[in-house]
Amino acid sequence: MERRTSVDMDRRTYVKVVGAGSVAGLTGTAGCIGSLTGSGGDKKLTAGTAPGFPPFEMKQGGELVGFDIDLLEAVVSESEYTLSGWEEFEFKGLMPALSSEKIDVIAGAMTINEKRDKKIDFSNPYYSADQSILVRKGGDFSPSKLGDLSGHPIGAQKGTTGEGIIKDELIAKGKVSESNYNSYGSYVLAVEDLVNGNIDAIVIDKPVAKTFQSERDVSIAFTYETGEQYGFGVRQGDSEVQKALNTGLKAVRDSGKYAEIRNKWFSDS
After folding, report:
1. CA–CA separation, 133 and 163 (whole Å)
2. Which CATH superfamily groups domain 5-126+231-265?
3. CATH classification for the domain delimited by 130-227, as one of 3.30.70.2750, 3.30.70.270, 3.40.190.10, 3.40.50.300
């Protein structure tokens, strides 16, 4: 898995480098109000995530697991806060849930970009990723560049970088018609449609594509480099939580715990 030395760069510097991207949010499945202070003055955080994005966040036997889950729990344990629990949403519901104080931090493989940064703040980056194009394994369609997707039904998850690429680089430039684009509430549904032949390709984050490739009858046709990085989301102006997450993230990296968690969830690390 590709690693970049810029992973610990300052969030504001990173946003200026990357430029604008795409965003949206979905409806939450739970809605307990997050609280920064509990009884006795304990500092507590409620985290929000969007299962269905393996290996970052997913359900196994009814349990919420994944790289983001383990990492945030480790990061918070290195701070003065405690994690009171997790709330689950579809991806585009995470930012509204944060803004309405249903949660206090987002751990959902969320790419840092200027559009999102106008609405929420981010921790320092904790993971680097590009976009991959998934196709059916053994199928006749073997694209090698974005332009090859022209004339084919394709899909992505709502509110993700993959959807942004399809809209900005393909539909807006007349390479793919609006009618040939299918948006999904989760990539699990998109992969089902791909395997069943309802669409011919999916644009999806590279590490997630590799997980689906190992588990389903799909394969990565090529990877489109975006230089994107993920960060934990916090409410705008919540510098106390932001600082705590950055301090905890550094401690987890310095102790070797980050590498341990990464190696647990990514087989090529």
Report:
1. 12
2. Periplasmic binding protein-like II (3.40.190.10)
3. 3.40.190.10
DSSP state of 213: H
Q: Going residue by residue through the chain, which has 269 residues, state the pLDDT in tens, using 9 for 90 and above.
A: 333 333 333 433 333 333 333 333 333 333 343 444 443 447 999 999 999 999 999 999 999 999 999 999 999 999 999 999 999 999 999 999 999 999 999 999 999 999 999 999 999 999 998 999 999 999 999 999 999 999 999 999 999 999 999 999 999 999 999 999 999 999 999 999 999 999 999 999 999 999 999 999 999 999 999 989 999 999 999 999 999 999 999 999 999 999 999 999 987 54
pTM of the model: 0.75
Q: Partners of 133 in the beta sheet?
A: 203, 222
Q: Which residue's structure tokens are 């073997």? A: 142
Residue 256: which residues within 8 A CB-CB, separation 6 or more?
none
Rounded Cα gap, residues 108 and 179, in angstroms:
29
